Amino acid sequence: MSDSDTLILPREDVALDVPWNVVVHDDPVNLMGYVTWVLMKVFGYPEAKAAKLMMEVHTLGRSVVWTGGRERAEFFAQQLQSHQLTTSIEKSA
Amino acid sequence: MKLSASPMDGIELILEEPHDWLMVMAVLHDANDRDFDLAGSLGAAAEASGQWEDWKEWVLPDLREGFADNLRHVVRVIKDAQSEAFPGPGSIKIPPDDYFPWYATLNQARLALEAKYRLTADPPAPDQNADRWAAFVRSQFYSMLQSQFLNLGLG
User: Fold this and answer.
1) Fewer CB atoms inside 10 Å of the end CB: C or N, chain B?
2) Which residues lie closer than 8 Å to A69 by C-beta, 6 or more apart?
3) Taking CB atoms and an 8 Å limit, are A29 and B110 in contact across chains?
4) How big is the A-B interface in CB pairs under 8 Å?
5) Helix or strand run (H / E) with residue B35
6) What is the ipTM of this complex?
7) CB–CB of A53/A39 below 8 Å?
């Protein structure tokens, strides 16, 4: 080893995987029964849970419908948009 | 126009008059509004989150293709029915397996009409702007059809 060789020291860098929210936003067109049906189809939610989330969208303007890893959040957002629901993802607080 | 619905056989639109065909054809025109970017509008809320550029590049093309597929399917069904019957009476049969592309195309049409005319925030009256009123009537008609699909189960 020469004097000028670089010594590489390993450093542990632990980054916590921040959860992401999938958010459905209200719109004036999609029928309430349809939004419930989409949430059941995409997430496999029972009807009561899907209907509750749909009512949150309807009354509050938005609802966090799923929280988890970013890749799956993006996948679900794409699925919801393919069913014509206005959707975004955001870092969970 | 009459509508017959059965859980087993699906929905049949019975077109009795020439203007019934025009009403059905209007779905295609409204759903294919070139001034309205449905795929882009659905992810607009992502613009603020810093993911919009990736989303535009990787997701929007697939969404657009999916919406176009639904529309193409409905166009084909209507044109086939029309070529057999127009301008006389005829019918359009929609089996249960076809409910989703029909529902989605009607939704595209209603979303485009809403973006153009803001029908829910300010519903028109019959004696006001004729274009808005006609758009409102079409949107109500599409919504009624969508309710039929939902009642029978989208699949």
Assistant:
1) C
2) A17, A19, A20
3) yes
4) 64
5) none
6) 0.90
7) yes
